[in-house]
Amino acid sequence: MIPWVVSGANFPPVATAMRRPNGLLAASSPTELTSDRLVQAYQLGVFPWYSEGQPALWWSPDPRMVLYPSEFHVSRSLRKQLQVAAQSEELDVRTDQAFESVMNACAEPREGQEGTWITADILRAYVGLAIRDMAHSIELWRGDRLIGGLYGVCLGRMFFGESMFSREPGASKIALATLVRLLRREDVTMIDCQQNTAHLASLGAREIPRERFAADVADAVRRTPIDWSAYRGMRLNCLLPDS
């Protein structure tokens, strides 16, 4: 039986998560999905993932897919895209200018997928985190058109990636490369990617045991938070040239 988490209750220990489906830890009412509950979850390495009409489902898979910024793989084609973006006067790379728009773009239907896990409750809760400076977006703009980006949660010196999108080829990879360069400047050593996909693996992400992941998260979230305000007035294109 899946543990049911009620308001004010703690999550079960992550070691008790189910093996099949891998990592299902608990369920709750969707109304329980608040910004405060998200903070509690991410501090434990737990994230929500469910569809409209379902209870909120909370996950902690084992193993866990992560990307170490120092291991980010830049292919030859991506390197060329980054060089162009770094010098472009038409393309602006920014942070936190349109967080909700990025989430809505990530929620748009994709080929081969039915529906979206970014429900109205999810949107409301993560926008609440963004208002509290705990969730952030990296955005690619061509003029006033948003062409790609990503968003995630950042607590202390730990970044939990959530979703990304592209409206032009390679836009989400440029956003991720920008995030990686920013996080390396800020001594963030790990990005949570949640679950294994071939796309993430091609970018250098790999799996680690849940126990190790949870321990690393517990340490990272206690560290001094990044000052994201220092980046909001910048064109982040300046981070893209190879250092």
Task: Produce a short descriptive summary.
31% of the residues lie in helices and 23% in strands.
Structure write-up:
This protein is of the alpha+beta class. The chain folds into 2 domains: 14-61, Alpha-Beta Plaits (2-Layer Sandwich); 65-239, 3-Layer(aba) Sandwich (Aminopeptidase), CATH 3.40.630. It has helices spanning 35-43, 76-87, 99-106, 120-131, 171-185, 198-202, 210-220, 229-232; strands at residues 24-28, 47-48, 56-59, 64-67, 91-95, 135-142, 145-155, 158-166, 191-194, 206-208. Strands 5-6-7-8-9-4-10 form a 7-stranded mixed beta sheet, sandwiched between helices. Strands 1-3-2 form a 3-stranded antiparallel beta sheet, with helices on one face. Strand 8 (158-166), helix 5 and strand 9 (191-194) form a beta-alpha-beta unit. It is globular, with a radius of gyration of 17 Å. It starts with 23 loop residues before the first strand and ends in an 11-residue tail after the last helix.
Which SSEs are present, and which pair or pack?
Blueprint: E1 24-28, H1 35-43, E2 47-48, E3 56-59, E4 64-67, H2 76-87, E5 91-95, H3 99-106, H4 120-131, E6 135-142, E7 145-155, E8 158-166, H5 171-185, E9 191-194, H6 198-202, E10 206-208, H7 210-220, H8 229-232
Helix pairs in contact: 1-4
CATH class of the largest domain: Alpha Beta
Terminal CA distance: 51 Å
Strand content range: 15-25%
Strand order of the largest sheet: 5-6-7-8-9-4-10
Tell me, briefly, the overall form. globular
CATH homologous superfamily label of the largest domain: Leucyl/phenylalanyl-tRNA-protein transferase, C-terminal domain
